[in-house]
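Q: What structure does this chain adopt?
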Amino acid sequence: MELIETKGGPKRKCDGISENTCMGKKLRLLSSSAENNESYKLELSGLGNLWSVKALEKVINNEDLIIVFLMETKSNREWMNNIKDKCNMKHGLIVPSEGKSGGLALLWKEGVTVEVQTYSQSHVDALVDGGAGIGWWHLMRFYGNPDTAERSESWAKLKHLKGTSTLPWLTIGDFNEITGASEEGGSDRPRQQMKNFIEAINYCGLRDLGFIGPKFTWIYQCEDGMQIQERLDRAMATPRWINIFPKAKLFHLTSSVSDHSPLALQMVQKQRNKKARKTFRFEAMWLRYQRCEEVVKKAWEEGKLTSSGSMLGSCLEKCWARLEAWNKTEFAHVGRRVSEVQKRFEWVKLQPPSSKINQELKRTRVELNCWLDKEADMWRQQSRLNWLQSRDRNTSFFHAKASARHKKNSIEGIMDANEAWH
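A:
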């Protein structure tokens, strides 16, 4: 186990539960977390493939996350360090997987003060400095034991951790349990299991934060074509924490690479900056389609026939116009198309399970991943970084690099074979 940018500590016993304990190195920040949009990303199961890493980067960019929880990473320390760097996270705690199971990570950006208290394969307990007017509060990521026979040990640990701090407390994670029949679809949980979970919640004085988005956070595909859907992932907090962050909202996102829905918790209302209108640029992804060459040839011939001055300028103008029109018709702006397919994917997941819906879910997942690849190609071309590798995806760093070159990417003229400028 490794705690990045922190000092290690000794082990201690917690009511018979052996846990690794470490006090985090306090990070001095330029701005307090209370002044920024604070969000948490939770649960992308299995980060050993590039699809999952790409999906994680996409969520972090879209939601402007500053603290990230990852569970069931199924990855070693070296690979998780690479992911931390890709996601532009400066600090973090990484707990490598045990063989092909387990593994977790708590990552946070520069500008956040986090002190990790204890951690294990099933939890991370930390303190977060909310800055002036808020102060420190208690943050815990929790993972309920998937084995029902050992679920009681999870609730015992939850109750114990509740008593380790008197600060306002937020806990978020995959609890592997539901609180009632309304949180399941296609399964039949024993009432005593749910009762034990509710008892642990009440003992800790926690309140469910509710959610926005799809009702269920976990889907299991049965061999007979039917599905089991349940709300296993949630965020809960004490009344004191809720009073400090009354506008906190939990979003159930969708993922094409995991059977669990990512959770994004926004502490304050997000503010979106208006984007400036983009100028024309040739996209490398167009070259994947034969139609691109046909559009250019036809536009070039039109330019030669309609030229009233510079033939080259007329041909280029026609190419620009025809390629833009083709792009809008064929691709409808890659980012917009990704959003549209993502929304359709979310809608399909909300439909009652059936063989037809299951097929549509698979088809939409494949389509979404293809559009995400096209979007990554677009930003890879614009970034023009020689060291960009194929597994590097659409991150804010490459967006910034591409935008920084905007003023240098214009062509003022072309010299022909006779050394004449056009």
